[in-house]
Design goal:
With 448 residues, the protein is of the alpha/beta class. The protein contains 14 helices and 15 strands.
Length: 448
């Protein structure tokens, strides 16, 4: 049964479902009250907590007078174990491989993203305290905290899924929780070709650009697949290089052996001990890296990243939020100014033109699919402007099919990059056929 079918079934009036929900809520509240706060402060061993919860659940089911079948009791125990020890009503969605994102807007509204579309589910948290327990259980697992004095936090689940939570008074209608899921088996370049995010020609082109040590900037809006593409680009890195990755919360899943993973640290309860992305970028330069990969530049670390690219750390890769390749350069320029140095704009643009070689821009289309829409070469400075040259562009004019899916694909513009000769000198020649506009083989269009 598909996710949509399950949600429609849950939304249909059903007296038995309402009865089960009432029993579930009643037993849940009783078990939590009997356990007390000592069982949720991280001081009790997981096995002991699980044993105690099972005892209380069995006792609660025996005392409840509602007639339930054996199958209903088994279902109820599993749901309550998820509620109390797991991630509550979002646990089934965490296990569902067709769900890519979970959005909790307070205890009563849970949305999921399924095949690029948002769906409101009928799942609910028991109350706000229940939602808070789930959030605090997640953040405590990675040594972070969230409360009224520190009401925002980024964390991750054991499988690498990214978590963001916001508490009142910043969130008006209760705690907000957003989970960006990451697959246990990361997408490969071939997967992205099958889904239509990349074309076969672009896959070959990007592999040679990364192997040839070009500095690549991946840009795009929120939830366009930047981190997924960054993971794929990192798979093209040689196995004999020393790679340093820098992130706010660990998301990258590199398969090479010689990888050093650095993660930023927020301030402690006294406001001390913070380690920023910028601190880590500067420190990484002393770690003898062959490549530096920054999950995302958001602030003054953009200046340090540009300097690293300009001082012998060729082949570095990072991502940035932007609406187009040109906007990506504008954001890098703005973030460089945030580093606190009174640099002339001309000097910053010179740094960008010298450091960056390629911008790969992603967009999320109306059908929910993620596609690379621009592959743009950063050429040179001309007057006060950084000159860009589009090598591949997405053809929006191909329309949509009967199901509303885009038929467009990425096509070469016919222009050859200026760095082609540099790649050829390193043994990574670019075939002229990659840039031919005639006879271009269209990539299969998939769904994601």
């Amino acid at each position: 049964m598909s996710l949509y079918d399950r949600i429609r079934e849950a939304q249909s009036p059903n007296g038995a479902a309402a009865t089960l929900s009432a029993v579930r809520q009643r037993i849940h509240q009783n078990v939590v009250a009997d356990l007390g706060s000592v069982y949720f402060d991280g001081q009790v061993a997981e096995d002991e907590l699980r044993r105690r919860v099972q005892q209380l659940l069995q006792a609660g089911l025996r005392e409840d007078t509602t007639p339930l079948s054996a199958a209903e009791k088994i279902q109820l125990v599993q749901e309550l174990m998820d509620d109390i020890l797991g991630h509550g009503p979002i646990e089934p969605f965490l296990r569902d491989p067709t769900v890519s994102e979970i959005m909790v807007n307070g205890p009563e509204h849970i949305y999921v993203e399924h095949e690029g579309r948002l769906v409101l589910t009928e799942s609910r948290f028991i109350d706000e305290a229940h939602l808070r327990r789930v959030v605090e259980r997640i953040v405590a697992g990675v040594g972070r905290r969230i409360d009224e004095s520190s009401p925002m936090v980024d964390a991750r689940l054991p499988d690498g899924s990214r978590v963001n939570a916001v508490y009142p008074p910043l969130s008006i209608t209760g705690p907000y929780l957003t989970v960006r899921k990451f697959p246990q088996d990361p997408f490969t370049a071939e997967d992205l070709v099958t889904m239509g995010t990349l074309t076969p020609a672009l896959r070959t082109f990007l592999e040679r650009c990364v192997a040839g040590r070009l500095n690549v900037l991946v840009s795009g809006g929120t939830s366009t697949g930047k981190t997924t593409l960054l993971n794929v680009l990192s798979s093209f890195l040689p196995a004999d290089e020393r790679i340093v990755t820098i992130e706010d919360a660990k998301e990258l899943q590199l398969r090479q052996e010689h990888v050093l993973t650095l993660e930023a640290r927020p301030p402690n309860t006294e406001g001390r001990g913070e380690v920023t992305i910028r601190d880590l970028v500067r420190n990484s330069l002393r770690m003898r890296p062959d490549r530096i990969i920054v999950g995302e530049v958001r602030s003054g670390e953009a200046l340090d990243m540009l300097q690293a690219m300009n001082t012998g750390h060729d082949g570095s890769i990072t991502t940035v939020h932007a609406n187009s390749p040109r906007d990506a350069l504008s954001r890098i320029e703005t973030m460089t100014l945030m580093a606190g140095f009174d640099l002339p704009v001309r000097a910053i643009r010179d740094q960008m033109a010298s450091a960056l070689d390629l911008i790969v821009h992603l967009a999320r289309l109306r059908d929910g699919s993620r596609r690379v829409t621009h592959v743009t070469e950063v050429e040179r400075m001309e007057g006060e402007v950084v000159v860009l040259q589009d090598l591949f562009l997405f053809d929006y004019g191909m329309g949509v099919d009967a199901e509303g899916r885009s038929l467009g694909t990425l096509k070469p513009t016919g222009l050859r990059p200026k760095f082609a000769e540099r790649l050829a000198d390193q043994g990574f020649a670019l075939d002229a056929a990659l840039f031919q506009t005639e006879g271009f083989a269209r990539a299969p269009v998939g769904r994601r």
